[in-house]
Amino acid sequence: MPMEPLPDLSTLSLADIARLAAEKRLPPVESWNPDHCGDSEMRIARDGTWYHQGSPIGRETMVRLFSTILRREPDGSHILVTPVEKLDIAVDDAPFVAVELKTEGEGRERTLVFRLNSGDIVTAGPEHELTVRETPDGPHPYLHVRGGLEALVGRSVYYEMMNIALDEDGDRIGLWSDGAFFPLDGGA
User: Could you give the percent of the chain with pLDDT greater than 70?
Assistant: First the structure.
């Protein structure tokens, strides 16, 4: 069964985006607990590229499919899980990358919607927090996706968010989305 093409966020209203996100049904990976079966020989690079046995997976539909059975374990490791098998997968940073941003409203009324490299659409808010963490190579913004899985916010998207935040001229450099405020300056 072919996967639906990804919609163009720039042509959709937030109501349309919310409907699309609600319609997406993910497998219940949190309820699947088969015995560990081994290593998938797969890796997700920091830039969001998926590899199998060292070669990039070129089929976007395969990556989108695998992303639906990805789960983060309590120890922080990542696995691909089905009802009958559980396979380790290496993740260099975050398993997803936020590659596109749509924003509507201003100030406290703003809503930020992100498209991930997997095609997932996530609205930042109380259930999908934006955080900025200091790393040895500078601050890195992340978006909570689901079940402990995160998306690294891509550099161009981060710059777009920072420009919006700086234009708002608030007491703190940050943005509101879906009723929650997210500092972007790395402070508490």
Answer: 85
Residue 1 has pLDDT above 50, yes or no: no
Which pair of tokens denotes residue 165? 């935040």
**Digit-coded pLDDT (tens) for 36-58:** 889 999 999 999 999 999 999 98
String of DSSP letters for the chain: -PPPPPP-GGG--HHHHHHHHHH-----GGG--PPEEEEEEEEE-TTS-EEETTEE---HHHHHHHHTTEEE-TTS-EEEE-SS-EEEEEESS-SEEEEEEEEES-GGG-EEEEEETTS-EEE-BTTB-EEEEEETTEEEEEEEEETTEEEEEPHHHHHHHHHHHHHHT-SSSEEEETTEEEESSS--
Q: What is the distance of C-alpha 107 from the center of its chain? A: 23
pLDDT at residue 15 above 70?
A: no
pTM across the whole model: 0.84
pLDDT tens digits, residue range 57-96?
988 888 988 998 999 999 999 999 988 899 999 999 999 9
What are the distances in angstroms from CA 115 to CA 31, 57, 185? 26, 20, 22
Beta-bridge mates of residue 71? 79
Measured CA to CA, the distance from residue 57 to residue 49 in angstroms comes to: 8
